[in-house]
Amino acid sequence: MENTLKALGSVLNPQTGKTLSEEQRWVNTEAEENGQLIVTYKRDGISPQSKREIEENIVKCLSDKFDADKILVKTVSADSTVKAASPEAKPTDAHATLKVGHGVNGNKKRIPGVKKVIAVSSCKGGVGKSTVSVNLALSLKAKGYAVGILDADIYGPSMPMLLNKKGAKPQATAEKKIKPLDAYGMSFISFGLFINEEDPVIWRGPMLGGVLNQFFFDTDWGELDFLIIDLPPGTGDTQLSLVQNTEVDGVVVVSTPQNLAIADTIKGLKMFQQVNTPIIGMVENMAYFAPDDSDKKYYIFGEKGVERVAKAQGVEFLGAIPLEIEMRESSDEGTPYMTNSANKGREGWKSYSDIAEKVVKIVAGEKKGLFNKLFK
């Protein structure tokens, strides 16, 4: 890769005015079989602002030789190399590894082998979005679809616990792609599988892009009808990386009926509308509590708040999911609610099944409607 390093000869350290070659900062350039180029340099003493400028210039210098979305920049320091796994969780040669760096925004792409990509979002934390993601995915699987689930919450990955995969480590395929785990018959990947459960992730936002791109495009998802992406709260880097790099077929927005949660959820809804990402509809989670020993419903967080907002915003209301003790217990035990046939007949089971059916009709209906217009 000598020619590549020569092309990078003009990249300056803005703090000193010297090139990275003069400061002997280049470590390696490596071309992967999938066409990705990995550039590694020494970051010691470089501020975050200068780091950002350096990496933008790296991409600019190489843009005539490589696609921008195929360039991954990594940094090392005298103290440690930036890694995805903690020292206690060293992967073997057979384990999949992550190349942590700055993702570069490119043209939107389809995830290979995946027919429909559905993101589950809420701007507000604590509304049960991950629980909804898991049980929606399982409801789709119960209808005969091939389903995968991607935990896109880098800072607080909860899927390994929800799917009883704590401590499991993904393997690498012969093509050096990440091989997803099997969780209740679904393909599953999460950043939580690459770190120890207690380890915090202390990263700046742009580093998320590199990992997410690997989860999207360097994971062997096989052939899937649906890939459910569980997004973190907020409207930040993860959400933007998703919509800028990936073809998303629709978003399911989750909220409790509480006014405080709804106020934040509307922001997330409008963000996706502003970036022209289709909204499949809204789900009201924890809509009410219905104890087993009574027919009475307790509207702990308010009544029909999400349904009213959906109507006001002109989006589909997909359904209300009650708060049941079985849902909390199943989440803590890693045996999702929709895997237990004993829950059939309960309101929660019916809610998830109905929501999954609506999601299928809405997502598939877009294509059907197009053909109807063409042949009318």
State the gist of this model.
The protein is α/β, with parallel strands linked by helices.
Write the layout of secondary structure elements.
Blueprint: H1 2-7, E1 26-31, E2 37-42, H2 48-62, E3 71-76, E4 114-121, H3 129-142, E5 147-151, H4 159-162, E6 171-172, E7 178-179, E8 181-183, E9 186-190, H5 207-217, E10 224-230, H6 237-245, E11 250-255, H7 259-274, E12 279-289, H8 305-313, E13 317-323, H9 325-333, H10 347-375
Parallel strand pairs: 2-3, 4-10, 4-11, 5-9, 5-10, 11-12, 12-13
Antiparallel strand pairs: 1-2, 6-7, 8-9
Features of this protein?
376 residues; alpha/beta; GMP Synthetase, Chain A, domain 3; Rossmann fold; eight-stranded mixed beta sheet; three-stranded mixed beta sheet; 10 helices; 13 strands; disordered C terminus
Q: What is the CATH first-level class name of the largest domain?
A: Alpha Beta
User: How many helical elements?
Assistant: 10
Adjacency order of strands in the biggest sheet: 8-9-5-10-4-11-12-13
Shape: elongated
The end-to-end distance, rounded to whole angstroms, is: 56 Å
Alpha-beta content class: alpha/beta
The proportion of residues in beta strands is 15-25%
Describe the 3D structure:
The chain is elongated and about 75 Å long. Helices cover 32% and strands 20% of the residues. The chain has helices at residues 2-7, 48-62, 129-142, 159-162, 207-217, 237-245, 259-274, 305-313, 325-333, 347-375, and strands spanning 26-31, 37-42, 71-76, 114-121, 147-151, 171-172, 178-179, 181-183, 186-190, 224-230, 250-255, 279-289, 317-323. The termini are far apart. The longest helix is centred in the last third of the chain and has 29 residues, at 347-375. The protein has 376 residues and is an alpha/beta fold. The protein has two domains: 2-82, GMP Synthetase, Chain A, domain 3 (2-Layer Sandwich), CATH 3.30.300; 114-375, P-loop containing nucleotide triphosphate hydrolases (Rossmann fold). α3 (129-142) packs across α10 (347-375) and α5 packs across α6.
